[in-house]
Design brief:
single chain, about 475 residues, alpha+beta, five-stranded antiparallel β-sheet, five-stranded mixed β-sheet, about 15% strand, disordered N terminus
C-alpha cells in the first residue's frame, strides 16, 4: 500500500533486517479468480492478515489497496463479515461520490475544445489543477492562473501540475531532467517505439481515450471498465507486441507482492498477441524502485537484474545523484533486459566491468570471492568471510546474530524466516505447521466465542451494556486499522 518516499529510511531499516516493510501485516493474494473483493473508492480492496512471530492470526480483513492512512480511505471489512443491503447501498453511494468530477469522455471533450482555442485563451488554473475553457474563467478569476498555455506545455503535464504532497498516499516526486533524458535516450537507443507508463496519475485531462487509462496498479483495476482494458490490450499487442516496453514508477511504500501480480497480468495481456513461437519471450520492463527491495523483486521475477544507475528526483531534497552514503538516491532500475545492452553514462561516473559484463558505478569494485560487483548503494562494499558475501562498509559481523549489521543494531530485532516455527528456509505462507496452527487458533476462537455467548446470556440487555459493546467493537476496529499504519 502506498506511503511516502520520505519514509524510505524506515523501509530500508526494515528491509535490511529481513521483513522488507511488512510491519506484521501480510497481503493475501487469492488464486481463485471467482473470489471478488469488496470495493472502495480505489477499486477492489486487498485481503490482509496480521502475523505475529510464533503465532498465526487466521481472521483476515479487507482494506484499501492504495491508501495506508485511515484518513485517506477508512475502508475495513472482515473477510467473513456479512453486510446488510442498506450498508452496501451506502458504500456504493460513497464510492461514487469519491470519483473524479469529470469522466474520461468529458475530459477528452474538454481537451479537444481547449486545443482549438487561440493561444491567448488557453489558460490553466494551478489552484484547481484544471484546464480552463472560456466559460470557466469567471469561477477562477481569484485563482493562480497560467496564461498562453502552449502545445509543448500540454505535452509535458508535469510542468503544469503541482505535485501532490500527501506523504502517505499521493506523494509525487518527478524525475530530474538528468534521469528523464537518460531514460528517453536509452529507450530510443534500444529500439522501443511505444512506452506503457504505469504510475502517471492525474493526467486524464491531457490525453485522448486511446492514450490514457485511469488505473490502480495495486489491484489491476481499470476504473472505466472493459473499454479501458481493451485500450491497454490494443496498445500492448500492436505489431504483435514488438517495440513496446513497460516503465513502472510505483509508490515506494507499495507492497511488492500485489505489484508483481499486477505486472504479471500485464505481461500475460501482452503475450496474448504473440504467436506460439514467441511464447518464451518477455515483455521488456523497467521497474523503478529502491535497491533494498532487490531480493523481493527478483523472487517474483528471477530474470530481472538491478542496474547501478541512480534515479534522482527534481522536487526531493535527498534523492539526488552524486551525494554520498545514505544521502544519495537509493532508487534504481530493475529490468529483464540484458544489462550488457544498457550503457550507463561514463561522464557521470559509471564504468564497464568486463567480468560482470555490465556497467557499474565507479566505487562498485569487483569482488573476487563473490565474482561480482557487489555494491548496491554506490559505495565500496567489504567482503565478510563469515557471512560469505559482501556487506555495506558501515556494517560489522555480530557473533550473537551470526550476521553482519550496523554496530548499534538490536540483536532482538526481527529475523528472516517463518513467523510460525522460526525456521529460515521458508515463509509463513508455506510453513508445514500452518494447518496445526490454524486448528489450534480455531479451537481457541471457539472457546472464546462460547465464553462470550455465556457472558451475554448472563448479562442484562440494558442500555449501558449495549453502549459498552459498541465501544469495544469500535476500539477493536481501530486497532485493526492501525496495523496498516504501523
Amino acid at each position: 500500500m502506498a506511503t511516502s518516499r520520505d519514509q524510505l529510511g524506515t523501509l530500508e531499516a526494515e528491509g535490511s533486517s529481513g521483513r522488507q516493510g511488512y510491519s506484521g501485516v501480510e497481503v493475501v493474494l487469492s488464486s481463485d479468480p471467482a473470489t471478488s473483493a469488496p470495493l472502495c473508492p480505489h477499486g477492489p480492496t486487498l485481503l490482509f492478515v496480521k502475523v505475529i512471530q510464533g503465532k498465526e492470526e487466521t481472521r483476515r480483513f479487507y482494506a484499501c489497496s492504495a491508501c495506508r492512512d485511515r484518513k485517506d480511505c477508512n475502508f475495513f471489512q472482515w473477510e467473513d463479515e456479512k453486510l446488510s443491503g442498506a450498508r452496501l447501498a451506502a458504500r456504493e453511494a460513497h464510492n461514487r461520490s469519491c470519483q473524479p468530477p469529470l469522466s474520461r469522455s468529458q475530459c477528452v471533450e474538454r481537451y479537444l475544445k481547449f486545443i482549438k482555442l487561440p493561444l491567448s485563451q488557453r489558460k490553466f488554473c494551478q489552484s484547481c489543477q484544471q484546464l480552463l475553457l472560456p466559460d470557466d474563467e469567471e469561477k477562477h478569476h481569484e485563482h493562480q492562473v497560467v496564461d498562453d498555455v502552449s502545445i509543448t506545455q500540454l505535452k509535458r503535464p508535469s510542468k503544469l501540475l503541482y505535485p501532490l504532497e500527501n506523504k502517505k498516499t499521493n506523494a509525487q516526486y518527478l524525475f530530474a531532467d538528468r534521469s528523464c533524458l537518460f531514460l528517453v535516450d536509452l529507450l530510443s537507443n534500444l529500439g522501443f517505439r511505444r512506452v506503457l507508463c504505469v504510475g502517471t496519475p492525474r493526467y486524464s485531462q491531457f490525453y485522448m481515450e486511446d492514450s490514457f487509462c485511469h488505473y490502480n496498479m495495486f489491484n489491476h483495476h481499470f476504473f472505466d471498465g472493459k473499454a479501458a482494458l481493451e485500450v491497454c490490450k490494443t496498445f500492448l499487442q500492436e505489431d504483435k507486441g514488438e517495440g513496446v516496453i513497460m516503465v513502472a514508477d510505483p509508490p515506494f511504500g507499495g507492497l511488492v507482492e500485489p505489484l508483481a501480480v499486477t505486472f504479471k497480468k500485464l505481461i500475460a495481456m501482452w503475450k496474448e498477441g504473440h504467436s506460439q513461437d514467441n511464447s518464451q519471450k518477455e515483455l521488456p520492463i523497467f521497474w523503478i524502485f529502491p535497491y533494498f527491495f532487490e531480493s523481493r523483486i527478483c523472487q517474483f521475477f528471477p530474470s530481472f537484474c538491478m542496474l547501478d544507475y541512480q534515479v534522482d528526483y527534481d522536487n526531493h531534497a535527498l534523492y539526488k545523484h552524486g551525494k554520498t552514503g545514505r544521502k544519495q538516491s537509493p532508487v534504481r532500475i530493475f529490468t529483464n533486459i540484458p544489462p550488457n545492452k544498457i550503457i550507463l553514462p561514463i561522464e557521470e561516473g559509471y564504468r564497464f566491468c568486463p567480468l560482470c559484463q555490465r556497467y557499474v558505478s565507479l566505487e562498485n569494485q569487483h569482488c573476487e570471492h563473490c565474482n561480482s560487483c557487489t555494491s548496491k548503494d554506490g559505495r565500496k562494499w567489504n567482503h565478510c568471510f563469515l557471512c560469505k558475501k559482501c556487506v555495506k562498509p558501515s556494517w560489522i559481523h555480530c557473533s550473537i546474530c551470526n550476521r553482519c549489521a550496523l554496530p548499534d543494531h538490536s540483536c532482538k530485532g526481527p529475523k528472516d524466516g517463518c513467523f510460525i516455527c522460526g525456521e529460515l528456509d521458508h515463509k509463513r505462507s508455506t510453513c508445514p505447521n500452518i494447518s496445526t496452527s490454524k486448528n489450534v487458533n480455531k479451537a481457541v476462537r471457539k472457546q472464546k466465542q462460547r465464553k462470550s455467548n455465556k457472558m451475554k446470556m448472563e448479562t442484562t440487555k440494558g442500555q449501558s451494556m449495549n453502549h459498552t459493546s459498541v465501544t469495544r467493537k469500535k476500539k477493536r476496529r481501530e486497532r485493526i486499522h492501525q496495523y496498516l499504519c504501523s
